[in-house]
Amino acid sequence: MKYVLIYCLLLLSYVAEGQEMINYRDTVHHFSLDVPDQWRVIRNDEKNHIIFAAQRTNSGGLHSFPEHVTVNVLPEPNSNVDNVAKKLLFLISRNPYFKLIDSGSIISQGKRLVWLDEIHVEPNRTDTFFSSIFISYADSKTYLLTASTFLPFPDRFKEIFHQIGQSFKTGKAALKERLKITLPANSQWTMITDTEVDNLATRQYLPASETPQQWSLLITNMTMENARVDNIDLAIKNFTNAAISRASQAKTTLLGKENLPKRRWALFKVETPGAGTPESQLYYVVQGPRSFHAVFIAKKSETLPADFVSKWSAVFRNSKVINE
Prior knowledge:
Elements: E1 9-16, E2 19-26, E3 31-36, E4 39-42, E5 50-57, E6 64-75, H1 81-92, E7 99-108, E8 111-121, E9 128-138, E10 141-150, H2 155-166, E11 169-170, E12 177-180, E13 189-197, E14 200-207, E15 217-224, H3 232-246, E16 251-260, E17 263-271, E18 280-287, E19 292-299, H4 306-317, E20 320-323
Antiparallel strand pairs: 1-2, 2-3, 3-11, 4-5, 5-6, 6-10, 7-8, 8-9, 9-10, 12-20, 13-14, 14-15, 15-19, 16-17, 17-18, 18-19
């Protein structure tokens, strides 16, 4: 199903500085960008290498304005963003009515983009164009985002053009190390959290019939990216101390561990007998090749039944560190 559609866009919406934006992600050509929600998106089927276009419209979508944005993707082996920018400047400066207004660079997700603000006149047109061009290079391809309008124009459009450009992300996403667990087939689970903040990635699951406000079981799967624990006892201690800080009655029982350089893991449970608001957890922590992983299931009970511990110990110990 992944490539049944030649062109695949996934949409997410958010509000930035009072301007509602839509995020478009092309999973075939590997880029994404944000555009204002009232701009009409056009799919160009790669005509002239333009694989994305959007134009500002009125609220009913019946009238179009000159402001528009396009994305071109061109094969460019053995190059880099600076060489591409120089080449582009050389080509467009051959237009005698071209003038470079400003230029610079930004960093987006660790990748450097070059931007140009310019004005020009096109053949057989009386209008003078203002354009903000954002240049990226990834996977042996040049990605060009061009946002344009006519002169004169309100200053806010330049700000919008640069907001769009700063959202421009290109290239295949780098694979990331994660701990993959296979949930029991005889139960249904719903993912309620999937976040990456700084170097911490977190996924949480609840039984399909439960809510974040009312739950009896909660699975949390965390990855501390590019982190290494040289002694698994330190990880056990840190999680135990965190449990004690929430409930002084917390009791830790070690169920198994290895502390070898290439086999560093631990399985343990934390129970809260006598706690006013009981919550017990079964933890599995493991050092991966590049990152440290911790998964645990929390149950709102003072202790964990033996069959519960046996069942989830098997689930966690059968998990695998993968790249996804």
